[in-house]
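Collaborator request log, item 7. Partner lab (contact: R.S.) asked for a structural prediction of Acyl-CoA thioesterase to inform their binding assays.
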Amino acid sequence: MDETATVAESYTEMTEMLLPNDTNNLGRALGGAVLHWMDICGAIAGMRFANRQVVTASMDHVDFIAPIETGEVAVIEGYVFSVGRTSLDVKVDVRAENPRTNEERRTTTSYFTFVALAEDGSPATVPELTCPTPEETALRDEAIEGRREQLTDIVKRYDL
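Returned to partner:
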């Protein structure tokens, strides 16, 4: 296994058309469907980075800031922005696209932690994260700051 991997090597983009089976009675995406897509996207990003199976360890707070309407396309993007010895932190963003008007809007962001697994199912070491381009450094820094801001907001909101 390589000892280093880049943000770009983990980058994953998925699309899903919102169909009636994944909607509530208002014709908008069920939160559980969006979380499912986010978890899959994050896991793929983690597997691309680590070159091995990963499992979800945690997911940070999620705010659904805008709906995804029936017939719109959900674009789910994820990338690894931080690593531990056996864990990977992945930022996952979701935006809605109206394919008829090309309008887009941000709908959801969260941060996931995955653990890499060896063939026997035990935790396995992951590559060191490198950012060889200014764009990758900016993505990493944006994710770190976004997670910090989200955690600060939660502490304030719930008076922790």
